[in-house]
């Protein structure tokens, strides 16, 4: 099977570091930073200075003193915030979320005792993965509610994920999972609990996986665009080096080269086609390239967030500073832009699908790519569903940062709703891949009707083998999904 050049995005490398076989460790230097941070915080408390969440209450209750028992204060924090609802965040994303929290604590600004960190890391290294509901965060003061559910699970309450013998994830009681692993639940103190729930890690984890998916979608759509141009005999001028170089946009230059890699002299330009194709084919380098450039910009922000400290308060030198690093607006704005990027790709794919089923544009093959128009309807249902998917993407794409509502006695009076935005993008991506799968079905059916055999060892030959010709109408829902999943696997970065 021919492999495809992948976009070189650091976010994919960062995510891959959270796999099951990698372990979180604490170097001597990191331990020293954490010990110094914890000692600084303890000195401030011993000196009678006020420290948010340790000597004082949480949120607008900061004017009141905390419980004299640090454990009672910590348990109260994670208990009152365990109010999330909805489907759970996927186990893989949850593991990345935990990795982000643990990595941030190692920087030495959180005041967390390294002995406690090692217990938390041991659970992560053993594969303990909490079940965390996805809905309920406003992503200011961090993603408090999903992280509190994670903390509850790590303390032995709620649920955790476990793998079946077949490798599938299933939800089990947290205590049952601890027994299976032979480990003990955590006992949270006020500072450790606050350091864990105060951060942008849930929205950042979901957004990072979304980012990875959109990068893959862009690479896949470039290949599909090239394949479509090749099959139809479209003019290659639109994808030439000269066109892109004079524009001077790096994304366009890259995407045009991906499209050119699908064009071969064994199928020359069809001189009966118009000099210029519709925009959805002619402007594919410009559209997909603009998305790639936006993704590179967003990647910088997401990686900087992943490598920083999003706690409050933070220990800096000999100071304990109270501020707002937990405000997830950098991530929220990335998710707002992710929605626009994914929409552009899905919209382009839907328009290309429209070309492929229309005899005016598809080189006079039958309408809806059925060999028997009238008695059979071909890909008519596939196109209708794809149209609905794009409409749904547009409904989900409203910027979440524009939906802020002040809350928490007006303490949290400016909030980013970053996790809401990231969750919406995850849904957008699901629909986007279904549109991509629909286009893949049309391109593949076109080759069957036109009797164009793809070279052995190519993804196009594999598609012809996996997805049989559509002669008589049949239900295609499973095939569209299968096509989407296969293409996502092939083009994963």
Summarize the structure in short.
The protein is built from 18 helices and seven strands.
Question: In which order are the strands of the major sheet placed?
Answer: 2-4-5
- Number of folding domains? 2
| Oligomer classification | single chain
Q: Please tell me how large the radius of gyration is.
A: 26 Å
Q: How many distinct helices?
A: 18
The CATH architecture of the largest domain comes to: Up-down Bundle
Q: Mean pLDDT, rounded to whole units?
A: 94
What coarse outline follows from CA principal-axis ratios?
elongated
Helix percent reads 40-55%
Number of strands: 7
Name the structural class: mainly alpha
Structure description:
- The protein has 493 residues and is mainly alpha-helical.
- The chain has two domains: 10-200, Fumarase/aspartase (N-terminal domain) (Fumarase C, Chain B, domain 1, Orthogonal Bundle), CATH 1.10.275.10; 207-491, Fumarase/aspartase (Central domain) (Fumarase C, Chain A, domain 2, Up-down Bundle), CATH 1.20.200.10.
- The protein contains 18 helices and seven strands.
- The strands form three sheets. The chain has a three-stranded antiparallel beta sheet with strand order 2-4-5. Strands 1-3 form a two-stranded antiparallel ribbon.
- A hairpin with a 5-residue loop joins strand 4 and strand 5.
- Helix 9 crosses helix 18 and helix 15 (380-396) runs antiparallel to helix 16.
């Amino acid at each position: 099977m021919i492999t495809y050049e992948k976009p070189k995005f650091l976010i994919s490398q960062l995510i891959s570091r959270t796999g099951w076989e990698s372990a979180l460790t604490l170097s001597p230097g990191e331990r020293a930073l954490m010990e110094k941070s914890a000692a600084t915080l303890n000195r401030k408390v011993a000196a009678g200075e006020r420290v948010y969440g340790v000597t004082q209450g949480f949120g607008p209750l900061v004017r009141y003193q905390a419980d004299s028992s640090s454990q009672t204060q910590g348990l109260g924090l994670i208990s009152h915030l365990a109010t999330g609802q909805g489907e759970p965040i996927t186990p893989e994303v949850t593991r990345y979320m935990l990795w982000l929290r643990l990595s941030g604590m190692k920087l030495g600004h959180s005041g967390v005792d390294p002995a406690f960190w090692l217990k938390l890391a041991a659970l992560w290294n053993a594969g303990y993965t909490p079940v965390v509901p996805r809905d309920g965060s406003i992503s200011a003061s961090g993603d408090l509610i999903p992280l509190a559910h994670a903390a509850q699970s790590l303390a032995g309450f709620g649920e955790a994920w476990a793998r079946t013998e077949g490798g599938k994830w299933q939800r089990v009681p947290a205590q049952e999972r601890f027994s299976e692993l032979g480990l003990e639940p955590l006992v949270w103190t006020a500072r450790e609990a606050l350091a864990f729930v105060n951060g942008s890690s849930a929205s950042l984890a979901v957004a990072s996986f979304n980012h990875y998916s959109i990068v893959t979608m862009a690479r896949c759509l470039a290949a599909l665009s090239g394949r479509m141009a090749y099959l139809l005999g479209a003019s290659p001028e639109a994808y030439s080096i000269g066109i892109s170089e004079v524009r001077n946009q790096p994304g366009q230059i890259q995407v045009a080269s991906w499209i050119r890699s699908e064009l071969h002299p064994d199928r020359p330009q069809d001189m009966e086609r118009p000099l210029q194709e519709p925009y959805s084919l002619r402007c594919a380098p410009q559209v997909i390239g603009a998305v790639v450039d936006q993704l590179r910009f967003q990647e910088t922000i997401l990686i900087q967030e992943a490598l920083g400290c999003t706690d409050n308060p933070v220990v800096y030198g000999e100071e304990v500073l109270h501020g707002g690093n937990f405000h997830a607006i950098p991530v929220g704005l990335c998710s707002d832009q992710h929605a626009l990027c994914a929409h552009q790709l899905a919209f382009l794919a839907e328009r290309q699908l429209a070309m492929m089923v229309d005899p005016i544009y598809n080189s006079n093959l039958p309408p809806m790519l059925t060999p028997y128009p009238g008695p059979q309807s071909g890909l008519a249902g596939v196109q209708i569903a794809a149209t609905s998917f794009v409409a749904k993407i547009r409904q989900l794409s409203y910027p979440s940062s524009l939906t802020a509502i002040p809350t928490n006695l007006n303490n949290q009076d400016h909030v980013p709703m970053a996790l809401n935005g990231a969750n919406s993008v995850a849904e957008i991506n699901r629909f986007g891949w279904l549109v991509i799968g629909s286009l893949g079905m049309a391109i593949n059916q076109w080759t069957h009707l036109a009797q164009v055999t793809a070279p052995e060892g190519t993804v196009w030959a594999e598609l012809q083998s996996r997805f049989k010709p559509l002669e008589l109408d049949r239900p295609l829902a499973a095939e569209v999904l299968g096509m989407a999943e296969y293409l996502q696997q092939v083009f994963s970065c």
